[in-house]
Amino acid sequence: MGAVSRCSKGWVGWLIVLVVAALVVTAVVITVTKKSHKSEPAPVPGPPGEITTKYADALSVAMQFFDVQKSGKLVDNKISWRGDSALKDGSQAKIDLSKGMYDAGDHMKFGLPMAFTATVLSWSILEYGDQMAAIKQQDHARDALRWITDFLVAAHPKDNVLYIQVGDPDIDHKCWERPEAMTEERPLVQVNTTSPGTEVAAETAAALASASLVFKTVDSTYSDLLLRHAQQLFTFADTYRGSYSISVPKVQQYYNSTGYKDELLWAASWLYHATGDQSYLSYVTVQNGRGFADWGRPTWFSWDDKRAGTQVLLSRLHLFSSKASNAENAGLRMYQKTAEAIMCGLLPDSPTATSSRSDGGLVWIDQWNSLQHPVAASFLAVLYSDYMLSSRTASFSCNGNSFTPSDLRNFAISQIDYILGNNPMKLSYLVGYGSNYPQHVHHRGASIPADAKNGCDGLQWLTSSKPNPNVAMGALVGGPFKNDSYIDSRNNSMQTEASTYNSAVLVGLLSGLVTTSSVPASFT
Question: Where in the sequence numbering do the catalytic residues fall?
Fold first, then answer.
């Protein structure tokens, strides 16, 4: 009995040792697999596939905000409470600046964010035009883009002159009125050789160069016009270097620039795509990559900072094997490595993931306009994911851990689903989408009845506790605080104001998620 007992205990002991050893081996295999597994590239997507209804519906809503923001004599207007406005803009300089879009909830036209809106909208159409077309939104996107580029061309009447602002923000912000009722003076601000504005001139060059690609097969004459202005503006921006925040100090209160090197790289990148001229590729790689691009340092993409966008845009050249010299390819590799570092910062399971997230999972960088960064970052993530798929790149590494295109897409889906209502507030931050969205958007036109005759003095509509009488369809409001809370008050512009530049990245993100298809290897 005792001998049998000792024998049984011995077998049990050996069994335990074997099980533990097996578990250790399994854990090591899993770890090594996660860190070094070379997964097979996913098949290259074909034409647009099955439509994801919620993203298609959200895109159709988001596109309408561009119609809400239009200035000038409206054509085929579908926003019942909007009408013609600012018809005399630019008249004092004998140019027509009536078109363009108001930047946010006021009636200012600021050139830097407006041009950025156009560049991102162009990028979205170039990458995802077929997916937009699948839900009948491509023409709408082109119309919105042309409304801005018409303004930008008119704002560039001479080689080294660019009008970068219409309206006086001090006067504008003292008035709470409908744009159709404006009677105040709307002065013009320009940059030129003695008062340079490199960042705004370069961003405008990027907008027109990218838009020239959009219209190349639709209206070649207009495309040529856009490209000619883009090249002139880039030469102006690069030759007469200086920040518009110094030349025009008042913009520091509204759209202050933190530097212009990123816009020069951004513009030259788009000009290379539009022209195929190797001098632009050399500019961003050999000549100025090391000094301007901050290689290896992840950044956030925004109307002010184009570095992350440039890293991703130039990665497509490297992934799709562009014609480049050895030195240029070395620079492109650095752009791609930096783009991957940006992606690693977004993925929650990455060793280098940003810890700045709300409890509900939203990437959260700034309390003012908090949705700006997660939406822009998600747009870049979807783009990079699709570049990987279309170039048959299976994975990338974050400090030894491998991640795939689907990881990037899942991150983007987590962010957009939060925005569309899967959040602790159960609130859609896209006005007009779903049954529960903000009712007090900080927006003059939306907050004032269409038949009101209050003129400039309409502050009673700003302070009213009643919901807006007009729905600012497609407005992406500023967003929640880091604790996922949101105060729906018209006076709370930090959270309730919308902007066209946020709408541009949102449209790009939604267009990439509507369905799956391959992105073009080249824009030309």
Answer: 442
